Amino acid sequence: MTVGRKVFVLKDESRIDPISKETREVLISIYYPSNPVEHESKYISLFEPNISSSIDMLSSMGVDKDYIHNLDTKIHNDESVDITAKNCPVIFVAPAFGVVRDMYSFCVEHLVECGFVVITIGATHESIFSIFPDGRFIQQSNEISEIDSLDIHSWKQLLKLRVEDMSLVMKNVDKVLDSDQDLRAIVDVNEMGIIGHSLGGAAAYELLKREKRIKASILLDPSFHLITASKEEGVSAPLLVARQEKCSFEELENEISPDLLPLLLSGYESLFNSSDLNSSFIKLNGAHHMTFSDIPIHYNEDGIEHKQSTINKYISAFLEEHLKKEDSKFHELLKNKNNDGIDLLDSKGHVI
Fold it and tell me: What distances in angstroms separate CA 8 from CA 30, 31, 78, 179, 255, one per listed residue?
């Protein structure tokens, strides 16, 4: 299957951007099943119309220019919609801190092939760069890049901005879909899910508290120290929390500062104890925090394809069970979890 991509800019006239001091703008990419094309597509096409600035920045971060130029993708910009696709649930994706919204292609391609339409939500001034259709190239602001890991107040402000952006997207999703009759025709807006990674995971959970249209949520190694969870808040949507290999106090005590670690552990425990019966907490052995994004692909990390294939298998099964009503698909998959390097976790991050 070929994956199509369209980019939209949403303006929130009710908010002033804290960095630019102008109207807040939010970039989104919509990915959908498209008609077959004969020509190949390169990963760098995701950075149009300012590929050169993007490559220069990635190169400054250690990415090999020749390698990234030659990476292939199944994604094609602005291709026509495959109208034979029907009843596609909508999945929103909220990226990690600094990660560009289109750097989840490994997951996006798989989800579209499984019959979903995916909307990734940018974070202007927070992503390492944001590329607007008019060619503007906006780098991460110095103010945001310099936030200390223990400056919880500033992180909460950034989280609030993310949630407001995501709420804007959900509020305007019908208007965006209406811009293309074929796209509107294949989407089922009654079935919505959300995937959030790291800071995006904390934001996705906050959105769950307010947005009852979301019927399933996946948090990929979320920022637990920014999550406030309790039974009283009434988050009832099924939840899948997928973590990196190191989860418990014993595994993390030499990895994370002693001031931050208790906040992470208590946030995770609160989330675990407040979650619905349909929720699952797992970890992928061999995974690190950025395994859940395209970043390891950029650096040609050894073994990343296999790990991300496993992530995709569990993500799609969970969403198919809860949004496509394919009963027990995810729970049947869990029966073979050991073969996939997946473990179930308890409230302390220990393997059950």
Answer: 8, 11, 11, 10, 39
DSSP 249-318: HHHHTTTS-TTTHHHHHHHHHHHHHH--TT-EEEEETT--GGGGSSHHHHTT-TTHHHHHHHHHHHHHHH
Mean pLDDT taken over the chain: 96
Nearest to 172 by CA among 121, 107, 112, 96: 121
Task: For residue 351, tell me if it sits in a domain.
Answer: no
- Give the total number of structural domains in the chain: 1
pTM of the predicted protein model: 0.97
Cα 81-326-82 angle, rounded to 5 deg = 10
Q: Specify the pLDDT at position 234.
A: 67
Q: Tell me the β-bridge partners of 88.
A: 187
96 occurs within a structural domain = yes
Residues sharing a CB contact under 8 Å with residue 63, sequence separation 6 or more, in sequence order: 298, 299
What CATH number does the domain containing 212 carry?
3.40.50.1820
Domain-embedded: residue 352:
no
Are 121 and 94 spatial neighbours (Cβ–Cβ below 8 Å)?
yes
> What is the extent of the structural domain holding 77?
2-344
Instruction: pLDDT band for 236, please (50, 70, 90 cuts).
Output: confident
Tokens 């992503």 identify what position? 127
250 part of a folded domain = yes
> For 77-124, what is each residue's pLDDT tens digit?
999 999 999 999 999 999 999 999 999 999 999 999 999 999 999 999
The whole-angstrom separation of Cα 186 and Cα 245 is 37
